[in-house]
Amino acid sequence: MESQGKVTITKKITNSQLWKSIFRHGYQGTDKNRVLTILSNYFLHLHPPKVKAGAEKFYYTWCMGGISFLLFIILTVSGIYLMFYYRPSIDLAYRDMKDLEFAVTMGKFWRNMHRWGAHGMVITVILHMLRVFQRGAYKPFREFNWVIGVVLLALTLVLSFSGYLLPWDQLAYWAVTVGTNMGKAAPIIGADGPFSIVTESSDIRYLLLGATSVGENALLRFYVLHCIALPGVALVLMCLHFWRVRKDGGISGPL
User: Fold this and answer.
1) CA-CA distance, 208 to 187, in Å (whole number)?
2) Residues 6+ apart with CB under 8 A from 40
3) Distance between CA atoms of 14 and 26, rounded to whole angstroms?
């Protein structure tokens, strides 16, 4: 009786005018209707309408791509929550982090979720790239999507690094100081690097910090990069990544 009730409720929902206005095709068991359901939905059309047999198995995909995207969503939600209680000022940043930990309701939970989610995303993106390489899913005609994946890996690492400065404690301060000094020694674009074509006031380190040392400008720039610029670029590239999977023949499957 309970299962029949669930079926009746499901039919009422799927037959309603609201549902039909959003999903313009039903779910009858035909290949044509299944494909139309995917292609006519804004979100679903990024995914391939068909998947090769065995390609969705855990032992083949490891689910690392999906888990990476799930962690990105978790980081976005938790990050927005943290933004309500954080101010990018050298006089207030550390105090706000302490308030999040001890004064804000569930603040410590959300901060830890954001922190461990970031660590997890770095790991899962690396494992996803390893799986793609191991299975040969970077070969023609998927080379361009492999390049997008490499860029997304770099963005993931930069996102993790850009969030390092925001707590404004000693660990964050000196970690960013060391990291940006490495940029100063980069070839061509670093003031102290080989074949340098820039000065200390115009190299990559100055671009990141907005000054010659870590201070107020650096904190504001890292905040904007971490909360707006880098996530926006990553989201666009993820959508392009999903779409290219579809255009390249769907998820690569076992031979």
Assistant:
1) 16
2) 23, 24, 25
3) 8
| End-to-end CA separation in angstroms for the chain | 44
Q: What percent of the chain has pLDDT over 90?
A: 65
CA dihedral of residues 92, 95, 99, 101 (deg, nearest 10):
120
Roughly what angle, to the nearest 10 degrees, separates helices 64-83 and 107-134?
150
Q: How many CB atoms lie within 10 A of CB 77?
A: 14
pTM summary value: 0.85
pLDDT in tens, 145-190: 999 999 999 999 999 999 989 999 999 999 999 999 999 999 999 9
CATH code for the part of the protein at 54-247: 1.20.810.10
Polymer length in residues for the chain: 255
pLDDT in tens, 19-76: 877 776 656 667 787 777 777 777 777 777 777 777 777 778 888 999 999 999 999 9
The 3-state DSSP class for residue 81 equals: helix
**13-20 LR contacts (CB < 8 Å, sep 24+):** none
In eight-state DSSP terms, residue 27 is -
Give the position of tokens 């954001």. Answer: 114
Three-class DSSP category at 49? coil
Burial of 46 (0-12, 13-18, 19+ CB in 10 A): middle
* 67, containing H or E segment: helix 64-83
Q: Which sequence spans correspond to the domains of the chain?
A: 54-247
